[in-house]
């Protein structure tokens, strides 16, 4: 199965260029984004705007969550409307363990990964026996079940959420006490997540997953079991989203059931679609664009969601493949 058979939006003819965000260009695009992020704290210091670091940290956390969703949505064609549940599970792993005296980030991350992976395995094994709109609805149902379960936990704030006394430590050291330490830790996790998913999607596993997206019947006919590959991808995505939840809890120093609401799942889907499904660098770019648009439009009007919706409609109508598709077409024209 040739890499050239796929572009940022799905299938294209052999040999067609997919642009900056596809193929080897994805690594270049992501590298440029990572370099810009790494240089942001010194720039924020120069212009005396430390809030830039806080904003960028939150954006990167949601970029990690968007990357995890892109694995199942962009590469596996699994439209999960309950993906935010894994984000919330990771956040609550921090809150619950901290409330019981365990404030080490490593232990919290391990607990979050195990809990999110287990939830993904159980719900994925059930959800993947359905297709299309039924899959969407059952993932939504599981996500809402997790949401209302956390609402019912009055010992941990219930619907009001719970405020953390302090950020987690790392092997006993207050590495995350300052915003700068948390920023570079989140950046490191984002880089590792991208590199890991990049290797995974370019591997035999990734090729089978994309083949399953295109024609599951044919993949099964040539000896592959689509269910196992899809479930594995679903579990990996859930575990990675759980890590993002751990980081989000530390960034906000607050955990709420709202982290796992269906609205949050919808926002993650918008990030992936905005950046370009099936392009990991596009998922990161989509998260950055969405979060910045959210902040800028909110400053302009209290009806900012209407403006965001109109922009998304225009993007879908006139830019197939999202931001990655638009950049790919521009790059193709410049090379012509």
Your description of this structure?
By secondary structure, the chain is mainly alpha-helical. It has a domain at about 50-265. Helix content is about 70%, strand content about 0%. The protein contains 14 helices and four strands. The strands form two sheets. A two-stranded antiparallel sheet has the order 1-2. Strands 3-4 form a two-stranded antiparallel ribbon. Helix 3 crosses helix 12 (about 280-300), helix 4 packs across helix 10 (about 225-250) and helix 8 (about 205-215) packs across helix 10. Keywords: Cell membrane, Membrane, Transmembrane, Transmembrane helix. It is a multi-pass membrane protein. InterPro entries: ABC_transp_permease (IPR001851), LivM-like (IPR043428). It is found in: Cell membrane.
Provide key terms for this protein.
globular; disordered N terminus; 336 residues; 71% helix; mainly alpha; two-stranded antiparallel ribbon
């Amino acid at each position: 199965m040739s890499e050239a058979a796929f572009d940022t939006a799905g299938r294209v003819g052999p040999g067609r260029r997919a642009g900056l965000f596809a193929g080897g260009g994805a690594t270049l695009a992501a590298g440029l984004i990572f370099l810009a992020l790494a240089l942001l704290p010194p720039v924020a210091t120069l212009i005396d705007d430390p809030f830039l670091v806080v904003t960028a940290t939150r954006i990167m956390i949601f970029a990690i969550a968007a990357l995890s969703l892109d694995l199942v949505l962009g590469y596996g064609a699994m439209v999960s409307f309950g993906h935010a549940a894994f984000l919330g599970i990771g956040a609550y792993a921090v809150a619950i363990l901290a409330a019981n005296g365990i404030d080490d980030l490593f232990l919290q991350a391990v607990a979050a990964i195990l809990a999110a992976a287990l939830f993904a395995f159980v719900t994925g094994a059930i959800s993947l026996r359905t297709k299309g709109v039924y899959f969407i609805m059952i993932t939504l149902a599981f996500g809402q079940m997790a949401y209302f379960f956390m609402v019912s936990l009055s010992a941990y704030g219930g619907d009001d959420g719970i405020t953390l006394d302090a950020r987690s430590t790392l092997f006993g050291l207050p590495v995350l006490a300052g915003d700068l330490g948390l920023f570079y830790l989140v950046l490191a996790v984002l880089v590792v997540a991208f590199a890991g998913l990049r290797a995974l999607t370019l591997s035999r596993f990734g090729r089978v997953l994309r083949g399953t997206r295109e024609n599951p019947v044919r993949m099964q006919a040539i000896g592959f079991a689509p269910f196992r590959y899809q479930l594995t991808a679903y579990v990996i995505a859930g575990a990675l989203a759980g890590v993002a939840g751990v980081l989000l809890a530390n960034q906000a120093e607050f955990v709420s059931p709202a982290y796992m609401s269906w609205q949050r799942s919808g926002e993650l889907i918008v990030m992936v679609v905005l950046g370009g499904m099936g392009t990991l660098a596009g998922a990161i770019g989509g998260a950055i664009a969405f979060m910045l648009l959210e902040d800028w439009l909110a400053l302009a009007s209290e009806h900012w969601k209407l403006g965001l919706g109109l922009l998304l409609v225009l993007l879908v109508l006139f830019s197939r493949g999202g931001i990655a598709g638009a950049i790919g077409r521009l790059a193709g024209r410049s090379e012509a």
